[in-house]
């Protein structure tokens, strides 16, 4: 969305490197005088301030010849300074090591880098590799302004997901989260070195990595910005509950109907969350992969309440591309897109439950038979949840009912690996999405104008489902969260698919979703509300002032 340079009213483009201050030295052409101003030039340049040493060709040559210090930091050629390039601002991304979180900050890295700002993506060696291999669907190597920095972490337990566990929260990745807390010292050391190549440093950290960046505020010219990977709706709902459930406006009354958090998290999660809360109020501002057209009321409430100690809130989502370019090079993932090309408009329901959800064999059987009995076209991504280390250990291959794939051949497609979700959702043949309602999936579906059959599994998902079904009214429930421990039967799956894909009510949802998707697309274009917020954030971290800011 930010492919063009930020244009400021004073005529300075954001894409240009603009120095806060520059110093010009004008020496008397005598060796002693040249030496003194060269020494002073070196001192000034150590503060990352550009120094222009002007003089005659002959006397500049004299200065360089008799002063070896000049070659260390200043190269003088006929009065022209050729110092090592120093960026106006550099951005450091500190993601939580889980695929959905990695993807969001990768998308944000791409947006920030499009403003000609270097981005440093820091993380464990293993999870940076995961980010690249299972990344956001575009060529990372094509963007030269994004730099990956790998840090080692202690060895951690890497259990497989347990599809039969009572709690569906992905406890198997918690050891990786705890291991990533050891990044605190190396990340601080890395950021502490950046002032030599950047005048201002903005560290954007996943809110669940606050512990890691808590020391950054002590670094000169460095600020931290919290990135919230969940919706503003869920964030404010949690704040409202823990602060005593204050009076609500009529528009926010829906918060009283939210499902409880019971069953959303494992017993170990609060300890990790508490570790982050202790370090949370260090943020100079909050970023959301959200959009004011979707949850503007709750973004305003978060700013008003200063929930993290700041009223600076930027809603700069969706991060994902909102226009899908044709990709002939998708190779192994081309099959499902070619299959979609042959299907009628809005005739396919896409079924996927993200990278952290595991279903029992019995539940997979019921889902398969429900899709079959719905007699509707589908693409189903059937893969086990990620482990803490996705490159180690065996991956469970869940069994399907005998003869299932043969019976649905031509009408249904089962994908047992990563699938290009955004491209599938953006395809004209896709008319619905059966989803766990992770926030990434919600925002991608909304931006592509696709209604959702909500089947939340854990974490913030049950509350995202409320936003989708009751606030935005662009989806329906497959099963009420209150019955989360019960098996979702084939009859329930069949009913949900047919209602979403083949009913007047489903058609109304599709119409509302398409209208909202179009509005969201416009918001990220030049002059749109989200584009302006992104421009505002970039202006903020680069020390510029937009004409619309007060």
TrEMBL record:
Coiled coil: none annotated. Keywords: Glycosyltransferase, Transferase. Its EC number is 2.4.1.-. It is an enzyme of class 2 (transferase). InterPro entries: Glyco_transf_N, UDP_glucos_trans, UDP_glycos_trans_CS. Residues 19-66, 87-321 form the Glycosyltransferase N-terminal domain. It holds the Pfam family Glyco_transf_N. GO terms for molecular function: zeatin O-beta-D-xylosyltransferase activity. SUPFAM superfamilies: UDP-Glycosyltransferase/glycogen phosphorylase. GO terms for biological process: cytokinin metabolic process; glycoside biosynthetic process. Belongs to the UDP-glycosyltransferase family. This is Glycosyltransferase. It comes from Olea europaea subsp. europaea.
